[in-house]
Amino acid sequence: MSNVSTKQHLWALCKRDFALAYRQRAELLQPLMFFLMVVTLFPLAIGPNPQTLQLVSGAIVWVAAILSLLMGLDKLFRDDFLDGSLEQLILGPVPLYLNVLVKVLTHWLITIVPLLLLSPLLALFLNMTIDMYKVLIVTLLLGTPTISLIGAIGVALTVGLQRSGVLLALLLIPLFIPLLIFATSAIDSAAMNLPFRFQLGIMLSLLLFALAAAPAAIAYSLKVSQN
């Protein structure tokens, strides 16, 4: 297939996923509403002390982001598997790793952009400083694509299983712990006016490694699941 045809195919796949997400707006809003509920319930449980909220604000947002992303990941390949279009992607002329990379990127845009738009309100609610908020945005931009890429491997491995959500969470949550540690450490360092480039550098390295390795791993896992 020519480069032009490949680009047209990938663009059409991206538009298709956006259209399907728009038709399923209720399901699309579930992770977002879950994210909002978790972030707003934590201050009620901890108490209104501004210093305490500021101390745990980074951890609250990141735990809520990970859990909300896990809610949406389960459907990444599920509909394609059920209607047979996943098999067509596997057998088609366009390399499967390109197809899954586009699908993961589209899923990330659909899921994360609303969270980023809500983040200023959440930062104000959790008494974050400007420096903490800036670092929070950077960590989300670096960390959430890594979560989507690594999570897609688990989704691909369990796509043929019924009610795989709990199994998926058990498989993936331990893998996200390093990201959670480095992200919250960077936010805490920003709160104390300490250097945080090391943590961001580690997160960037993880993202680049996931971009290089995850698409091939996802493609292989989908082929295994289809057999």
From TrEMBL:
Q: Which UniProt keywords apply?
A: Cell inner membrane, Cell membrane, Cytochrome c-type biogenesis, Membrane, Transmembrane, Transmembrane helix, Transport
Coarse class of the primary localization is membrane
Top-level taxon of the source organism: Bacteria
Which membrane topology describes this protein? Multi-pass membrane protein
User: Is the keyword Cell membrane assigned to this protein?
Assistant: yes
Spell out where the chain crosses the membrane: 28-46, 52-73, 108-128, 135-159, 165-188, 200-222
Localisation per UniProt entry:
Cell inner membrane
State the Pfam families in the record: CcmB
Write down the InterPro entries for this protein, in alphabetical order: Cyt_c_biogenesis_CcmB, Cyt_c_CcmB_bac
**What exactly does this protein do?**
Required for the export of heme to the periplasm for the biogenesis of c-type cytochromes.
Q: What NCBIfam families does this protein's entry cite?
A: ccmB
Give the family per the record. Belongs to the CcmB/CycW/HelB family.
Identification of the protein by name: Heme exporter protein B
Q: Which organism is it from?
A: Glaciecola petra
State which gene encodes it. ccmB
